[in-house]
Amino acid sequence: QKEVEQDPGPLSVPEGAIVSLNCTYSNSAFQYFMWYRQYSRKGPELLMYTYSSGNKEDGRFTAQVDKSSKYISLFIRDSQPSDSATYLCAMSSPSGGSYIPTFGRGTSLIVHP
Amino acid sequence: NAGVTQTPKFRVLKTGQSMTLLCAQDMNHEYMYWYRQDPGMGLRLIHYSVGEGTTAKGEVPDGYNVSRLKKQNFLLGLESAAPSQTSVYFCASSYIRGSTDTQYFGPGTRLTVL
Fold it and tell me: So what's the pLDDT on residue B1?
């Protein structure tokens, strides 16, 4: 079992829908949780960053972390075709003084007009 | 700022050939990383560096070597390329702030080994 599990999709939704992307993990030491967005043939770019449990909102994006359930989510409101991309979750812990992140496999999202 | 750049963008090799991928960053980051990304496998860490002159193995280091002679550059070498090394390679860099490891990625190098 991988430390971080993420459904690869694809997830196809109509424009304007609320999108929910999720990851589960097994390492209780993870403290830092990130979501990256990767457009086709591009490098990943950081979208959201959260420390420990709770919610964080940035425009149409909301990141949620539930450490008790080892479950993180990214919600996208009013989804747009430009949101079509692969979304990777990542998480890290200060193990050994480094914070090398562990990535999920990514979920492919398609928002159709 | 150019951020993280990678050279070359594309390359086709024959089995047994060698090559070096170059990563450069202009953000004065301490940490640098090399990942490979394969369909259905996500990002897998090959090697990383916590500072100039230091390197460490990641999840899938076999068949690769790295060097960090200058803080801004991180080189990934393939001594004898194999078809299994066909992949997209991403370099990344990050700050050390004690509480974050936000990574900035390069645009990737698409490598095909025939």
Answer: 73
